[in-house]
Amino acid sequence: MENSQLLALANKYGSPLYVYDTDKIESQYNRLTNAFSSVKNLKLNYAVKALSNINILKFFKNLGSGLDTVSYQEVQLCLTTGIEPHNIIFTPNGVSLTEIEEVAKLGVQINIDNLSILEQFGQKHPEIPVCVRINPHIMAGGNSKISVGHIDSKFGISIHQVPHIKRVVENTGMNINGIHMHTGSDILDIDTFLRASDILFDVARQFENIDFIDFGSGFKVPYKEGDISTDIEQLGVQLSERFNEFCTEYGKDITLMFEPGKFLVSEAGVFLAKVNVVKQTTSTVFAHVDSGFNHLVRPMMYDSYHHITNISNPKGRDRYYSVVGYICETDTFASNRRIAEISEEDVLCFHNAGAYCFSMASNYNSRYLPAEVMVVNGQDYLIRKRQTIEDILNNQEVVEFSSKKKTTKAEVTA
To answer: How far apart are CA 372 and CA 390, in angstroms?
Structure first.
């Protein structure tokens, strides 16, 4: 999307504003499927938590993608698109047996990540096939908060507990139809996936009725010019070969699954914010925008880098700015960043804002959630209205009460 188009959208819908380019989403989806074209059965399940607007989910459904969910509410969102329940996989962490049972009633593929719930579910519903999430004890990911496959992680069943899984299966008569893992996000080294694949193949060999192996995701995308990313094509060559060999050995063409989120939508999204104030201090020039970590928390939560450009003055002389928000605590998007000269009222564009940006936004400071726009074949569509005060007040109940406690005679005497 060109600067002129983005500026027009900011003028049309106001700021702050999220904009998603579906051409980029589709190209990333095709890139991943093409990388694994030698695998007979490949299925991508888009990770809904990355960006959960129902129009984005519908777009993925139309591409032929399945959907990966982590909550009952995400499953409900997915079903509004008309997707078949069997094309949804439910991969929660530490949820109650009740929630898993509610999802199972809908016909969704269940993925269980702990022995306690696995045994309880198997005792009550042995007729429902389930996938199990394995913790491969591999440290991977661009940040400790998104590394989820190491030995101290809360996610998955340890590879050393596979005998326990087999005992539960034997005692309950339940059927394990899939093996799953997810080691982390922003994984650069494809050897991480290959090491984990060997672990999953060893686990899968111990079960007779496996229909699929889900390798999770975590592919790294570039965040700035010259940045490095996961070599998807090379991973496709090496992992496909190993997977096809396993299918031959297993005697069955099972399905290779991934659950990409950031890889598919990160680069497709931008966040537009207007500059309220340019403030010179004794040491820093601040560009204060009409947003904060209530709308884009990743830089504060993960120290994530988002490339920032001034689309109002893209050819201006470069200067150095700290881009900050309007929240009543420190909310710094970028420190001492080189950006084309900024003036008040300019619109700044935050790149790689498609994944874990709007989906992690909040009403902190009672600020409104921004609007969302989707661009399809060059045409823009408003897919979420900007919030109003009525939206914030909608579920709050007004009660009548006295603000002062009445003092009793006994309390006065005491």
So the answer is: 18
Supply the DSSP symbol for 316: S
Q: Count the helices and strands in the chain (H runs, E runs).
A: 13, 18
pTM: 0.92
- What domains appear along the chain, each with residue ranges and CATH number? 36-261 (3.20.20.10), 269-393 (2.40.37.10)
Q: Which two tokens stand for residue 28?
A: 């990333």
Alpha helices in 361-408 (DSSP H): 389-393
- Per run of 10 residues, the mean pLDDT along the chain (length 414 residues) is 95 98 98 97 98 98 98 98 97 94 98 96 97 79 43 77 95 96 72 85 94 91 88 94 96 96 97 97 96 96 93 97 94 96 98 97 97 97 98 93 67 58
Query: For residue 292, how many C-alpha atoms fall within 13 Å in the half-sphere facing its CB?
Result: 16
Judge whether 356 is annotated as a binding position: yes
Q: Is 328 a catalytic residue?
A: yes
C-alpha to C-alpha distance for 142 and 184, rounded to whole angstroms:
8
Amino acid 156: pLDDT: 83
Task: Say if CB 186 and CB 142 are below 8 A apart.
Answer: yes
Count, residues in the chain: 414
In sequence order, the 6+-apart residues with CB closer than 8 A to the CB of 395 are none
72 is in an annotated binding site: no
Q: What is the pLDDT of residue 148?
A: 42
Complete DSSP assignment for 192-260:
HHHHHHHHHHHHHTT-S---EEE----B----STT-----HHHHHHHHHHHHHHHHHHHTS--EEEE--
Q: What is the pLDDT of residue 261?
A: 95
Q: Does 345 count as an annotated binding residue?
A: no
Which tokens is 94 given? Answer: 């530490």
Query: Binding site annotation covers 319?
Result: no
φ/ψ of residue 265, rounded to 5: -120, -15
364 and 294 Cβ atoms separated by less than 8 Å: yes
What whole-number distance in Å separates Cα of residue 78 and Cα of residue 57? 7
Decide: 111 and 91 in contact? Cβ < 8 Å.
Answer: yes
Spatial CB neighbours of 96, under 8 Å, sequence gap ≥ 6: none
Vertex 281 angle, CA 334 and 353, to 5°: 15
Please pick, among 78, 131, 328, 349, the residue that the annotation labels catalytic: 328
Instruction: Please tell me the distance from the alpha carbon of residue 311 to that of residue 192, in angstroms, as a whole number.
Output: 38
pLDDT at res. 412? 55
